[in-house]
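Task 17 of the worksheet. Students: predict the tertiary structure of the chain below and write it out as structure tokens. Keep your answer in the requested format; marks are given for formatting as well as content.
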Amino acid sequence: MIRKIFSVVYITIKKYIFTPGFLILTLIIFLIPLLCLNLQGDGTAEGKFKIFVTYSFLLSSIILIFANIVFSSVSISGELKRKTIFLLDSKPIK
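Model answer:
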């Protein structure tokens, strides 16, 4: 059973590794520490931590919201152009 689950995970990762969504998540991972290195706090470790958490949450939220809007618009416009709508039907792994 676990081999079947891992095979589905492997195929999913292999298929989506270089999609725009993956590249945006990689951008988030590299951009947040670079942004937080330049920020100044009140000089304490707790202040720097609060600034890091606040800005990382805000930056990742903005990027993910923008990516969601772009990808859904592209998907819907492509489906309307081809006159096909793709539905997701989940099936259990046996």
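Marker's comment: The CA atoms of residues 20 and 37 lie 26 Å apart. The first helix runs from residue 2 to 16.
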